[in-house]
Automatic annotation (TrEMBL):
InterPro entries assigned: 2-MeCitrate/Citrate_synth_II, Citrate_synth-like_lrg_a-sub, Citrate_synth-like_sm_a-sub, Citrate_synthase, Citrate_synthase_AS, Citrate_synthase_bac-typ, Citrate_synthase_sf
Keywords for this protein: Transferase, Tricarboxylic acid cycle
Protein name per the record: Citrate synthase
UniProt-listed NCBIfam families: cit_synth_II, PRK14033.1
Cross-referenced SUPFAM superfamilies: Citrate synthase
Pathway assigned in UniProt: Carbohydrate metabolism; tricarboxylic acid cycle
Organism annotation: Sinomonas flava
Domain of life: Bacteria
Tagged with keyword ATP-binding: no
Family annotation (PROSITE patterns): CITRATE_SYNTHASE
Gene3D superfamilies cross-referenced by the UniProt entry: Citrate Synthase, domain 1 (1.10.580.10), Cytochrome P450-Terp, domain 2 (1.10.230.10)
Pfam family, one: Citrate_synt
């Protein structure tokens, strides 16, 4: 390609630009499908644990029973909140967003890691697993301290998803809730060259380290056009008003009226639309089924009414479909998470995808450095 920028080649937002190969996941908007290392994500969500999916994304194959046992043992041994990290978290104001706490925690993890500067695949696999194991404690404790509650120690008899809920709420979670939560974690784990993963790859392409890449990716995920949308969805539900005494139909009617007014005011409604999927997000049906199970479990038809009303009105007015952040928002609300904890939950899961991409980028690295077309003042000189 010529080094003299051709303005006709400008692709704002890199829309439609194919930047590199990846063998980690395949997003196919034509068939509305998503494969992790060749496996449909729906099959993985139905039949696998989050630990198995993490192993698959990092290693390319599902684990044997022995490999899984070893992997689980390592994950379980890394779940406690490092006392130094706890001091750092405690020193951060509760007015800060929990995503700022996550970003700080990832950075502190790197600064305290003996392997920080070692970017061999072996060291990166170790650091990725350590971060994956440790982040739930940060997310769970941060929500608890904001509620004036103490740290809960992890339980090594529970799987990743059940332990995450245990450390957040200090109660043995119901199997229905664990399953819905685990499905959300699996669906959030990986999605090719999305903005935060691309950020991680850009950082890695400079031969910087894994924790720097993850820290930067957390910053990219925070925005409401990306991961921050799951929080914004629930803020919309709250703005419309969640009335537990309302029927499905009553709630749906109010939600439709809210959406009609929002679209008439040319508002962008978070949780809808996607850069790649234009006919619906491949993950939504699976997460919607998990949300339906939660709604039945908690007996909350009015939440479904709000969900259906917004979705239907948006579809009728603009034909724009929900993305994954749309069903996860109300699902996390029903599970009892506070809204500002929603995007940190996404972080805890996406750490797997980001770090898989860090390792892949290093396998055939090329510095990521596109061109720009200058449109500032013509050359001029100091008087
Ligand atoms: C897990 C995830 O990160 S999924 C994404 C989460 N993000 C959100 O939910 C934020 C809301 N959605 C959006 O802002 C967008 O749909 C994006 C950023 C996700 C994708 O954006 P793009 O591919 O750049 O599409 P773009 O924003 O140009 O939208 C195309 C048209 O659809 C409209 N549109 C897209 N999404 C929405 C929405 N959520 N609400 C209202 N209108 C929308 C745009 O206004 C635009 O209309 P126009 O052509 O009349 O100007
Ligand atoms: O792919 C994207 O652009 C955003 C997304 O859905 C994700 O990161 O899961």
């Amino acid at each position: 390609m010529t080094q003299v920028p051709n303005t006709e080649e400008i692709k704002k937002g890199l829309a439609g630009v194919v930047v590199d190969y990846t063998a980690i996941s395949k997003v196919n908007p034509e068939t509305n499908s998503l494969l992790y290392r060749g496996y449909p994500v729906q099959e993985l969500a139905a039949r696998c644990s989050m630990e198995e999916v993490a192993y698959l994304l990092w290693n390319g194959e599902l684990p044997t029973q022995d490999q899984l046992a070893e992997f689980e043992a390592r994950e379980r041994s890394g779940r406690s909140l490092d006392p130094v990290l706890k001091q750092v978290v405690d020193a951060l104001p509760t007015t800060s967003h929990p995503m700022d706490v996550c970003r700080t925690a990832a950075s502190v993890h790197g600064a305290r890691n003996a392997l920080a500067a070692d970017s061999s695949r072996e060291a990166n696999l170790t650091k990725a697993l350590e971060l994956f194991a440790a982040m739930p404690a940060v997310v769970a404790y941060d929500q608890r301290r904001r509620r004036g509650q103490d740290l809960i120690e992890p339980r090594s008899d529970l799987g990743y998803a059940a332990n995450f809920l245990w450390m957040t709420f200090g109660e043995e979670p119901a199997p229905e809730v664990v399953r819905a939560f685990e499905v959300s974690m699996i669906l959030y784990a990986e999605h090719s060259f999305n903005a935060s993963t691309f950020t991680a790859r850009v950082v890695t392409s400079t031969l910087s380290d894994l924790h720097s890449a993850v820290t930067a990716a957390i910053g990219a995920l925070k925005g409401p056009l990306h991961g921050g949308a799951n929080e914004a969805v629930m803020e919309t539900f709250e703005e419309i008003g969640i009335r537990t005494d309302e029927s499905h139909e009553e709630a749906k009617t109010r939600a439709k009226a809210w959406m009609d007014a929002a679209l008439a005011a040319k508002k962008k409604v978070m949780g809808f639309g996607h850069r790649v999927y234009k006919h619906g997000d491949s993950r939504v049906p699976t997460m919607k089924a998990a949300l339906d199970d939660l709604i039945a479990f908690y007996g909350r038809p009015e939440v479904l009414g709000l969900y259906d009303g917004l979705e239907q009105s948006m579809d009728e007015a603009k034909g724009i479909k929900p993305n994954l952040d749309y069903p996860t928002g109300p699902a996390y609300h029903l599970m009892g998470f506070d809204i500002p904890t929603f995007t940190p939950l996404f972080v805890a899961s996406r750490i797997v995808g980001w770090t898989a991409h860090v390792m892949e980028q290093l396998e055939s690295n090329s510095l990521i450095r596109p061109l720009s077309a200058y449109n500032g003042p013509d050359e001029r000189h100091l008087d």
